[in-house]
Amino acid sequence: MPMEEDGARRTAEEEADRPAADAAAHGGHGAHARKRGPREAWGDFRGSPFFPAVVLVFILSAAAGLFAGSYTYSMANPTPHHIPTALVAPPGSVQAEKFVAGLDKALNTSLALHPYEDERAARQAMEEQTVFAIVDVRPDGVHMDVAGAAGASVAQVLTQAAPPVAKAIGVPVTITDVKPLQRGDPRGLALFYISLAAVVLGFVGSIQLSVHARTLNPLERIAFTVAYSLLGGFTIAAVVDWGLGAVRLPFIESWMILALTMFTSGMVFTMFNTLIGRWAMLPTWGLMVLLGNPSSGGAVSWPLLPSLLGHVGRWLPPGASVNAQHTAVYFADAQHAFPFLVLAAWSLLSCAVFWFWRHRHPGGRDRGAPAHGVAVGA
């Protein structure tokens, strides 16, 4: 019968095609099937979530070593390299020459001497943080003034080195800390820690905005960065001063410094996020934490840091924050504009880059999307 013959023919054709279909389905030896090469496998891996995860494993491992290394290199063995020192002594004083030479030898460094006519002028230089110590040679011996608030680590090494030197040259020495640290912060680390908190929370806040408030437009993102910076700076200052009583802060000034630090740090991340996308954490962490914090002069004073770090740190946001905060608390009458200019410059640069290339930032709302959910082409 014709119908039976047609059915039998279709069955035979299906049976004939089945091996080829099975081979194609299993990547077999069909006419158009071929083995996947290394290039295709690499492309699949690059497009999978495993690629960034593997990259992060290596990045985090390297970052851990760099983090430990940068702090150990900067802080584990602070050594005097360049200590600005005021010298008040009669011209050609033999006692002054012997004492300074002895200190140079004991510290294995060279004091950067700044001669002054009298103690009053030298004290003014110390107030302006131009010098870290005063060597005042008098008929009854050497009077050395140090400023623990200007640099606790510098004051410590000078205080330890001076008595043996004076004994060796047979000159009595009197050492006075004329600008001591506050009782709640005997090692001078509280200001470093609050600045560190502002730096870290500044860029962490920006990261969280990128994750949880991704659709913020540029002006909205900047406005919310300002908002969490102001509130965060207030909280840090309130906890340290009012809550713990560790340091008495000039509250408004310290609050504004912390807020500016948080904003700068947040916008630095936003800038890098605009330029390089999801890997923005790498340059942010490197600039602010690996390089900026160890060289800030907060934990170890600049004269005791490796010379390059001591110079670079002042131009980075963490160092500027520590500098401004430190002067506000202990040298209020000699506040400098420089650290504020550094923070402002980094903020303006970051905001300008973000705004100019805002179309590259991974966040923001699509202004070109059809209104009221109308589908394109409907």
Question: What would the keywords be for this entry?
Answer:
378 residues; elongated; 60% helix; alpha/beta
Structure description:
This protein is of the alpha/beta class. Helix content is 60%, strand content 7%. The protein contains 13 helices and five strands. It has a five-stranded mixed sheet, with helices on both faces. Helix 6 links the parallel strand 4 and strand 5. Helix 9 runs parallel beside helix 13. The longest helix has 26 residues. The radius of gyration is 32 Å and the shape is elongated. It starts with a helix and ends in a 22-residue tail after the last helix. The C terminus is likely disordered.
Helix-strand layout with pairing:
Blueprint: H1 2-25, H2 38-47, H3 50-75, E1 83-88, H4 94-107, E2 111-115, H5 119-127, E3 133-138, E4 141-146, H6 152-169, E5 173-177, H7 190-212, H8 218-243, H9 251-276, H10 281-292, H11 307-312, H12 317-330, H13 338-356
Parallel strand pairs: 1-2, 1-3, 4-5
Antiparallel strand pairs: 3-4
**What is the H/E string?**
HHHEHEHEEHEHHHHHHH
DSSP, total strands:
5
Task: Determine the number of helices (DSSP H or I, runs of at least 4 residues).
Answer: 13
What multimeric state do the chains show? single chain
Structural class: alpha/beta
From the alpha-carbon coordinates, what is the Rg to the nearest angstrom?
Answer: 32 Å
Shape: elongated
- Give the overall pLDDT as a whole number: 83
- Describe the largest sheet: 5 strands, mixed
Strand content: 5-15%
- Helical coverage, percent range: 55-70%
